Amino acid sequence: MVANAVASLRALATMKSCQILYIFFNIKFFLNPVASGEATQTVRKNLSIMSRKRMREDEASVTSTDCQSASNHTLSNGDFGISSVRTMAPFSDDPEAIAIREKVDYSVRITLKQARAGNAPRPIRVFADGIYDLFHQGHARQLLQAKNLFSNVYLIVGVNGDAQTHSKKGRTVMTEDERYEAVRHCRYVDEIVKDSPWELDDEFLNKHKIDFVAHDDIPYVTEDCTDVYSLLKERGMFVATERTEGVSTSDIVARIVRDYDVYVRRNLARGYSAKELNVSFLNEKKFRLQNKMDELKDKGKRVMENIGEKRIDMIQKWEEKSRDFIDTFLLLFGREGRLSHIWNEGKGRLMQALSPPSSPARGDDNSTSGDEAWQCCPPPPKACRLEYSAGSSRSRSSGASAASDDYSDDEAPSGGT
User: Distance (Å, rounded) from C-alpha 369 to C-alpha 229?
Assistant: First the structure.
């Protein structure tokens, strides 16, 4: 009904647009009386063709939309109902699922030949089961194959509970409630069976009115039997699906274990405590230190990225500064530098202070003669020297008055010393 209403609105909008164009051209030709009637008829014809073409396109789009939505609509009586894409799948004990199951006439059995030929008198109830831990594209692809095994399929998915999964397969990452919710939001699923049994028996098949079971053809071995689906294969109620190679829950868990440090550091940075992550005190400190180092690296990278075009200018300025520094260093400490010159001058002055110049030589031509030197610089007067005889002290005293005058070396008596 909604699709038909949308199509009607589209057609009405197309007709309105055509009428507006028609009125526009009529006004144009009314204002221009020179326009001929043939031109008006041509415009009308083109508008009519455009309108019919647009209506055919709208009808085709509505038909394709109905077919697409019909592939997702199934009810117990074969009619199309609410799309499973728009609503999450109900659990098997919900009133909606119970009402659909009660309307199914399970006394009418559907053979595999009828299902493949498309001659089934009612919707075909296909069952697929699994653990569906860490729901991924491999699980979704399996359910897609099960949904498209036949035409008009009502897909029931059984999810194993925690108790039997932990005892038979091992510990799961997600809880059973989380796995139920993950599967029921898959658009190919019509109904969810919680805590599905590990091995299917007649009681379970009759309760849920299951026609066929979909699973990969690899034998599923347990402690009691070599293949839990062997009985269904003998009855012709088993349909094989293909596994998606390269992806599985075990591979995802192995990747988490391999990159354990990365995920722990990420969750510590997000605010999780070491106790919640089951990390020791020393490992916590190590991981937090690594996070700090990564933050510093990231900041350094961002700084270098922000510099961008200025990097070349900075390098050129650094080269210029380095050249100036080298020139200044050589000017001070080089062989002909200022410090060398100051050192040489200081060394010369020190040598002059320690060893003054010698006196001029006598034979020098510039020196004056002996007489001139005598006249210019007479020798200092000599002190009077008195002679005392050893025999008489009187003669010494009498001679003292006679020798009171100063005599030079030339005027001294011949007998004087």
Answer: 147
